[in-house]
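Input C-alpha cells:
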C-alpha cells in the first residue's frame, strides 16, 4: 500500500515507520503537524523542527502542516492534508499510538471518513517489552522533554539504554510513570535507527527546567554518514 506516517521525530512515530517498511508498504510521506499551542492535545511539540533532519536521515519526503493547536479544531488541519493525500493515491496512515484512545479514535475517525486505512502497529504493546525492543533494534532515543514526578533534569538529553529501562520500572512502581511515556511524561527524538541512512549529531543545545517540567532544546545539529 501507499502510506503516509503521522510523524513527530519521536520513538513511536519512528517505530511506526519502521513497521510500515517491514510490512513492505511504500512510504510516500512523513506528515509533521507543527502546533502553535505548547499544550496541544493531539500533537508532539518539543523540537518538532527536527523532523526535517529526521526526514533527510530516512530519505522520505516531509510534509509540514501548521495548526493553531486549538482543541478539536486542530483535527481539521490534519483532515485537510489527509484529504489531499488521499487524492494523490495514499491508502493508509500510520500512527505511533500506544494507549491514547483520545488520539487514536480521532485519527481513526478521520481515516474512516476519507476511506483511508488507519494503522497503529504499537497499539496496546506492553510498555517494558516495547522499550526493550527499541534498544534491541538499535534505536538511539533521546529524551527531549519531561513532565512527571521522578523524571528530573538528569533525564533531559539522556539516551535511553537498558539501565534506563530498569530506572523507569522503579519510577513506574513509585510514581506511576508510564514506561513508554504514553501519558505525556516525556517526549523523545530518535537520533539513529535501522531505517536512518545518516545519524543525527547534536552540536548545540539548551536545557530549560521549570519546577517539575523540562525541555531539552536542540539549537544546532548535523547529519553524519553511517
Amino acid at each position: 500500500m501507499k502510506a503516509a506516517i503521522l510523524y513527530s521525530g519521536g520513538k513511536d512515530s519512528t517505530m511506526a515507520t519502521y513497521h510500515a517498511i517491514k510490512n513492505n508498504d511504500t512510504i510516500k510521506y512523513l506528515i509533521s503537524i507543527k502546533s502553535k499551542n505548547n499544550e496541544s492535545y493531539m500533537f508532539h511539540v518539543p523540537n518538532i523542527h527536527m523532523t526535517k533532519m529526521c526526514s533527510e536521515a530516512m530519505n522520505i519526503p516531509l510534509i509540514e502542516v501548521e495548526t493553531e493547536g486549538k482543541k478539536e479544531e486542530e483535527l481539521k488541519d490534519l483532515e485537510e492534508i489527509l484529504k489531499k493525500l488521499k487524492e494523490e493515491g495514499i491508502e493508509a496512515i500510520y500512527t505511533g499510538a500506544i494507549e491514547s484512545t483520545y488520539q487514536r479514535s480521532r485519527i481513526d475517525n478521520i481515516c474512516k471518513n476519507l476511506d483511508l486505512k488507519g494503522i497503529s502497529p504499537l497499539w496496546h504493546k506492553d510498555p517494558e517489552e516495547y522499550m526493550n525492543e527499541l534498544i534491541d533494534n538499535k534505536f538511539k532515543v533521546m529524551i527531549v522533554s519531561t513532565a512527571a514526578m521522578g523524571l528530573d533534569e538528569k533525564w533531559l538529553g539522556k539516551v535511553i539504554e537498558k539501565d534506563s529501562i530498569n530506572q523507569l520500572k522503579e519510577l513506574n512502581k513509585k510514581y506511576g510513570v508510564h514506561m513508554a511515556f504514553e501519558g505525556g511524561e516525556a517526549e523523545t527524538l530518535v537520533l539513529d535507527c535501522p531505517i536512518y541512512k545518516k545519524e543525527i549529531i547534536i552540536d548545540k543545545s539548551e536545557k530549560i527546567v521549570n519546577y517539575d517540567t523540562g525541555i531539552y532544546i536542540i539549537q544546532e545539529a548535523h547529519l553524519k554518514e553511517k
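The helical segments are 11-22, 51-58, 74-87, 101-113, 127-136, 162-175. The chain is about 30% helix and 30% strand.
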